[in-house]
Amino acid sequence: MSEVTAPAPEAPSMLLEDQLCFTLYAASRTVTSAYRPILEPVGLTYPQYLVMLVLWDRGPVAVKDLISALQLEYGTITPLIKRLEANGLITRHRRGDDERVVEVALTAQGEALRERVQCVPTAIGEAMGLTAEEIDAVQVILRRLTANAARHA
């Protein structure tokens, strides 16, 4: 009686277009660049827009909480905050109860800008060419992917 052996497992593809990391990278760069023509007229970059989204949602926040919300490093967030402050959209100050904590808050001009960018989510949704259900499904998968990858990092 002869022994039956299982076929050798196929080696993973080493083609660039087969790499999940590259697909995510290309999608991220493409989606981010779609924001440029929409945000440029209001004087924001995409990363600055993300900072503003947090502030519009949460109100004044400590810089460390902003770092956590945006998953950025201190060295990355500081220039964003400085530029937004120079443009009159936010203020920075040390908290009275704990001077170690720097808090960021919207100015009246920063709060007013919210109205001018209300069209951004719809415009980006249209640029992606996905239904609301497809966007929700992609977000669920990407959040799970992010959580799983973070556990292994």
TrEMBL record:
Pfam families: Staph_reg_Sar_Rot. InterPro entries: HTH_MarR-typ, MarR/SlyA-like, Transc_reg_Sar_Rot_HTH, WH-like_DNA-bd_sf, WH_DNA-bd_sf. GO terms for molecular function: DNA binding; DNA-binding transcription factor activity. GO terms for cellular component: cytoplasm. It comes from Catellatospora citrea. It comes from the Bacteria. It is found in: Cytoplasm. Keywords: Cytoplasm, DNA-binding, Transcription, Transcription regulation. Residues 17-147 form the HTH marR-type domain. GO terms for biological process: response to stress. This is MarR family transcriptional regulator.
